[in-house]
Write a structure and sequence with these properties.
elongated; OB fold (Dihydrolipoamide Acetyltransferase, E2P); 7-stranded mixed sheet; alpha+beta; 6-stranded mixed sheet; 2 domains; 11 helices; 413 residues
């Protein structure tokens, strides 16, 4: 009798144990499935990042094969064929005129780009998914390369690279900041070329007259470095300036500074920049600029005017006395005739002597858009921007003029 009464209890126990085993098995399967999903997602994200890095390195290698003014339309066509899946141009693209750009991006950049047209991509709509993407090594990133073909050869190139640095806490409401490095070519290292602002100070760098490097002062949510180099910069120097460390795309511990992405910027000391983040020349190195580097000053000058010094007088200024020379415009060597021949100008220059003829290289703010608050007859020359008219000086200036070209349209942006 007691044996029969124990049967139901045994059955219940067996059912409970079977149910427990089923639950444990289900949890184990679910855990393994979740782990597999995480691992597969990690592998997918890492594969994307490594593929992006591989493509970026291939693109950089192709970019370093370009020789400005030498690489031909056929060379440009090969690049457009190879990178056509990521390339784009507006209007027509012919051997006479073509502006072409290539953009390599990660999934989050493409998702954000959709949002610009009003439809936010899923990776940005779902903050948790975005957090997981970053935690697994995904980086909001783009590699942009553009070039200009004119009259059968490549005249300009520009690259910029951006990559997100996630916050330490990986807070889904905090997207960290973005590293940006930019390298662009121009015929002259001045602002009035129709392109973006040239960072790195106003004077020709004495140690490296072919390029200027600086960092923007108003970059919110980003850390940036920018280099502008002359189109006649030696190829080895262009390669050095535009060699990026794309390991930043695959590191689980992200790069933190622009110098991590642009190794050439590591050579620039923070002490070499002023309060506005512009490059400040080394005073001991500037002594040579007015001699052997006068050609670079001429390259960057937009206007060069020949004047005859009439008189010199001393003026009182905020920083002490300075000399103003009255000079008559005799002719122009370069640029537009902002001041008519025969007009009398005021030139701030201690070197001028009445009765002598000089070549003046005005600062671009002087010959640019008129300032209604300034005296339009007053010239503010570059440092080294007043030179006595001699055959030796003319040869130096002509060497710089020879590096200027006639690009149709604005510089690359």
């Amino acid at each position: 009798m007691e044996f029969r009464n124990s049967l139901p209890a045994t059955g219940v126990y067996t059912s409970v144990m079977a149910c427990k085993k089923w639950i444990l098995r289900t949890l184990r399967v679910a855990g393994l499935a979740a782990l597999a999903v995480v691992l597969l997602t990690f592998v997918a994200v890492q594969f994307q990042q490594r593929l992006l890095r591989w493509r970026a390195e291939r693109l950089m290698a192709d970019m370093h094969q370009i020789r400005l003014y030498q690489s031909t339309w056929a060379d440009a066509q090969k690049l457009m064929y190879r990178w056509g899946a990521w390339g784009h141009y507006d209007g027509s693209c012919t051997a006479t005129d073509c502006r072409y750009e290539i953009n390599l991006t990660d999934a989050s950049w493409r998702s954000w780009n959709r949002g610009r047209s009003g439809e936010v991509g899923w990776l940005w709509r779902n903050k948790t998914a975005n957090l997981i993407y970053r935690w697994l090594g995904g980086r909001y990133a783009i590699i942009h390369w553009a070039f200009i073909v004119q009259d059968g050869t490549i005249w300009r190139t520009r690259t910029w690279v951006a990559i997100a640095v996630p916050p330490r806490s990986l807070d889904k409401d905090d997207f960290g900041y973005v590293l940006i490095v930019d390298a662009k070519s121009q015929q002259a290292l001045r602002h009035s070329e129709g392109g973006d602002w040239v960072l790195g100070g106003e004077d020709v760098p004495a140690g490296h007259p072919y390029y200027k490097m600086g960092q923007p002062s108003g970059c919110e949510g980003c850390a940036a470095k920018e280099v502008t180099y002359s189109t006649h910069t030696p190829q080895a120097e262009i390669v050095r300036l535009t060699s990026y460390d794309f390991s930043c795309f695959t590191r689980l511990i992200s790069c933190k500074f622009p110098e991590d992405l642009m190794p050439a910027a590591r050579e620039e000391s923070p002490d070499d920049f002023d309060a506005d983040h512009q490059k400040t020349p080394n005073p001991s190195a500037l002594a040579d600029t007015c001699g052997s580097l006068l050609w670079a000053v001429a390259r960057d000058a937009g206007t060069v005017v020949i004047v005859d010094a009439l008189s010199v007088s001393e003026q009182k200024g905020y920083y002490g006395p300075y000399q103003i020379a009255q000079a008559k415009v005799a002719a122009y060597l370069k640029g537009s005739s902002r001041w008519p021949v025969g007009s009398v100008l005021k030139v701030e220059a201690e070197e001028m002597v009445p009765g002598k003829r000089y070549m003046v290289l005005p600062h671009e703010d002087t010959y640019g858009e008129p300032d209604r608050y300034a005296d339009e007859s007053e010239i503010d020359p570059y440092r080294c921007g007043v030179q006595e008219d001699t055959p030796e000086v003319r040869r130096e200036l002509e060497q710089g003029f020879a590096q200027n070209d006639n690009l149709r349209g604005p510089e690359l942006r």
